[in-house]
Specification:
Blueprint lengths: L1 E6 L8 H12 L2 E8 L1 H10 L4 H8 L2 E2 L2 E2 L13 H5 L2 H8 L7 H17 L1 H12 L1 E3 L2 H11 L24 H8 L2 E8 L4 E5 L9 H8 L4 E3 L2 E2 L16 E4 L16 H7 L9 E7 L23 H24 L4 E5 L12 H23 L2 H6 L6 H16 L1
Parallel strand pairs: 1-2, 1-11, 2-6, 5-8, 11-12
Antiparallel strand pairs: 3-4, 6-7, 6-10, 9-10
Helix pairs in contact: 1-13, 5-6, 6-7
Length: about 400
């Protein structure tokens, strides 16, 4: 059976999705339309690329130098160029500070030395990069890893132009090419901070945008990874030139846009496409940080290195962003609770990419058990008993979904 599926963002906690998908795979459920934000965009893309749960599990289990490969997502920044240092905000600040007791020529040399020293230090170089590039980490390793996975393994599906049984070759495709190859309607959510707009990236809205970069933009957690600048050769977004705009994590504006799969308003379907699944065939995978993960081992020690999250200004801003995201999505979740599978993730960190195998396996198993419990309630029609059959009729849901969806796409 075909289902529209929505995957929430949540960083490393997104590993819980694999458990949920394991149960769906066992029951023969297949994706119709897919939409993902941040970590959810990675999972949605893998699913569209025909990844089986076994392949996803293998990817999650990869090691490099006996450490989880995902620790590479927190790799060091590339060194700042001389031009970046010379034209940086810090260097401009130093120019504006005039030390009267030091001759101007000597002060300029001293300012250059200070800027270069900060750019080369382990700690201050990340702060320098944060100011100039918008993040503490570059995410170049992630981009390389993602492309390699999109070109790995054998494509198992009979959908799309890409032949079943042929090696995957999706890593360098744009969104239009990927849709043609797979036949699966994939949308990824990102945030345009220059244009103050939520972006729904798919083959209709941004056909020339590279698939890998669309995922990269969607998962670009503000302040953690560098902002992405929209390139001219990526084409227009919904007919509008956004070249040079700064793009970050979609969760900044909508972490769980389930209403986009419910509304049938023309301005919504123009972006999302029309339904091909049954009206009620919709699943929203929500990472629930209030639910315990059974048998999850405790974190024995913090990861080595600089803990960016411990910087008070960063933790304050992150708390503000999380509050805004949760407040907006809370009303949506409450309105469409019938379609929401709550996946436990209490005690797991957004950037816990170095989690042990035992913690990862416990998280995945919790995701599967939560999905089983949800589907059992669905089959027993418990939601109809709890909320009333009419509450979730298409006629009653549509006005709420239409209002929310048209507002965020306007």
């Amino acid at each position: 059976m075909l289902y529209d599926m929505v995957f929430e963002g949540g960083g490393a906690k997104g590993m819980v999705f694999v458990g949920a998908l394991a149960e769906l795979e066992a029951r023969g459920y297949s994706p119709a339309r897919l939409i993902g934000t941040s970590a959810g965009s990675i999972m949605a893309t893998f699913l569209a690329a025909g990844y089986t749960v076994a392949e996803m599990t293998a990817a999650l289990s990869e090691k490099q130098d006996e450490q989880p490969v995902f620790l590479g997502f927190l790799e060091s920044q590339e060194a700042l160029t001389k031009d970046e240092i010379e034209n940086s905000t810090l260097r401009e600040f130093l120019r504006e500070v005039n030390l009267r007791f030091i001759p101007d020529q000597l002060e300029s040399v001293l300012d250059d030395a200070i800027a270069e020293a900060m750019a080369s230090s382990q700690l201050t170089s990340r702060i320098f990069s944060f100011i100039e590039r918008g993040g503490f980490y570059s995410a170049q390793y992630f981009l390389t890893w993602l492309k390699s996975k999109l070109n790995a393994g054998i494509y198992p599906l009979e959908r799309g132009a890409h032949k079943q049984g042929e090696p995957r070759a999706f890593g360098d495709m744009n969104l239009a090419e990927f849709y043609h190859a797979t036949g699966i309607d994939l949308s990824l959510v990102a945030s345009d901070t220059t244009g103050s707009e939520m972006l729904i990236l798919n083959h209709r809205t941004a056909p020339d945008c590279p698939l890998a970069w669309a995922v990269r933009m969607s998962m670009s957690l503000p302040m953690l990874w560098n902002e992405v600048t929209w390139q001219e050769n990526w084409g227009a977004y919904r007919g509008k030139n956004i070249t040079g705009h700064s793009i970050v994590d979609g969760g900044l504006l909508s972490n769980f846009p389930i209403e986009l799969f419910i509304s049938n308003q023309p301005q919504v379907t123009a972006v999302m496409g029309s339904k091909i699944a049954d009206e009620m065939a919709l699943l929203g995978f929500l990472i629930d940080e209030t639910q315990d993960v059974p048998s999850a081992p405790v974190v024995k020690s913090a990861p080595k290195g600089i803990q960016i999250g411990k910087f008070r200004p960063i933790s304050r801003i992150t708390d503000l962003v999380n509050t805004m995201m949760q407040a907006r999505d809370k009303s949506v979740i409450e309105a469409f609770e019938r379609f929401v599978i709550r996946l436990p993730a209490k005690g797991y960190g957004t950037i816990e990419f170095g989690m042990s195998d035992e913690r990862r396996d416990a998280l995945i198993q919790a995701g599967r058990q939560a999905t089983i419990a949800y589907l059992e309630r669905l089959e027993a029609q418990e939601f109809e008993v709890s909320f009333g059959v009419e509450s979730y009729s298409p006629e009653n849901m549509a006005p709420v979904a239409d209002k929310i969806a048209t507002r965020i796409l306007s």
